[in-house]
Amino acid sequence: MPELPEVETVRRGLQPHMEGLRIADADIRRPDLRWPLPPDLRQVMTGARVTGLRRRSKYLLTDIGDRGTVLWHLGMSGRMLIEGASQGEFHRDPAVYARHDHVVLRMETGTTITFNDARRFGMVDLIRPGQSHPLLDHLGPEPLDPGFTADHLAAAFAGRRVPVKQALLDQRIVAGLGNIYVSESLFRAGIDPRRAAGRIGRARIADLVGHVRDVLADAIEAGGSSLRDHRQATGELGYFQHSFRVYDREGQPCLRAGCAGTVRRIVQSGRSSFWCASCQR
Ligand code: ZN
């Protein structure tokens, strides 16, 4: 499932092929994905100029001037494909079936941008001019923005008995953090994912804020390098390989220097948490 760094990588990959350019045609091939698509999506997008390409949490936002904004979510398996007008610029991976191409945008340059989603948990919606969207209304600060501070997190955690893992997944506290990067951030900060959020001292919260930022920045950088390697070959955006220090490493030795512990896994709120009981307190 794409998390914030993957979505940011997709945004950066799409930017040169969309921003400032007109959508010559928007081919909408299904009435629904996870939810129904707006019936006038084709009409609104066709002929529109992309005035901006933004990300909020795990959503991609395509601004189309006075026509509003298109909101995209990649869901579980969604990907964006770029296919060039000039032959041979990009080669589609034959494993990515065209029958899962649900939205195909032909840009004025001839490049096509395709939203392909085999499992159809993704979504595309319109934010009308001057409106907001219920999925964006209650999101907390972006973890990489200046609003995500130790003061903010300390206030959000104060008095909370829920495990810190669960608190960090709460999108009202901080937007866009998912299971993988919460596990990685808590490992880097040396905090036990089961610890009550309200029982973490101020200095450790400040340290945690720094680790959340670092872990995301590292992953975005890894995404950027995968983009450079990969985009030219296939034009497929959305997934890349990371090396995780703790996520999905159950039973393997802890990677913290000087720690002889073993990575464990527990299920919290229905999702796996990975941590080292020797060095995360
Ligand atoms: Zn350890």
Structural features, described:
With 281 residues, the chain is α+β, with helices and mostly antiparallel strands. The protein has two domains: 4-127, MutM-like, N-terminal (N-terminal domain of MutM-like DNA repair proteins), CATH 3.20.190; 150-244, Orthogonal Bundle (Helicase, Ruva Protein, domain 3), CATH 1.10.8. Helices cover 28% and strands 21% of the residues. It has six helices and eleven strands. It has a five-stranded antiparallel β-sheet with strand order 1-6-7-5-9. The chain has a four-stranded antiparallel β-sheet with strand order 2-3-4-8, with helices on one face. It has a two-stranded antiparallel sheet with strand order 10-11.
What is shown here, in short?
The protein is α+β, with helices and mostly antiparallel strands and 281 residues long. The chain has helices spanning 4-18, 41-45, 150-157, 164-169, 179-189, 202-234, and strands spanning 23-28, 52-56, 59-63, 69-73, 78-83, 101-107, 112-117, 123-127, 236-237, 263-268, 271-276.
Rounded mean pLDDT is 92
CATH class of the largest domain: Alpha Beta
The major β-sheet equals:
5 strands, antiparallel
CATH topology of the largest domain: N-terminal domain of MutM-like DNA repair proteins
In N-to-C order, the SSE pattern is: HEHEEEEEEEHHHHEEE
CATH architecture of the largest domain: Alpha-Beta Barrel
Any low-confidence stretches, pLDDT <50, length ≥5?
none
* Helix content class: 25-40%
- How far is the N terminus from the C terminus? 28 Å
What keywords describe this structure?
about 280 residues, alpha+beta, N-terminal domain of MutM-like DNA repair proteins, Helicase, Ruva Protein, domain 3, 2 domains, five-stranded antiparallel sheet, binds zinc ion
